[in-house]
Amino acid sequence: MYKQGAHSIAQDETSCAGFGVPKASVARAVATQILPLEHITEVVPGLFAH
Most CB contacts within 10 A, which of 1, 2, 17, 41? Predict the structure, then answer.
């Protein structure tokens, strides 16, 4: 998905109970953004605004 230009958000380590999946995205540098959980809910609606 990353190679096709998809926007992906990884939850940051400090706000994450289990950092396994987000850590893999961060390590592979495929996350467009790395955010705390409370900011993800603020960003997502803007991704769908036209």
Answer: 2
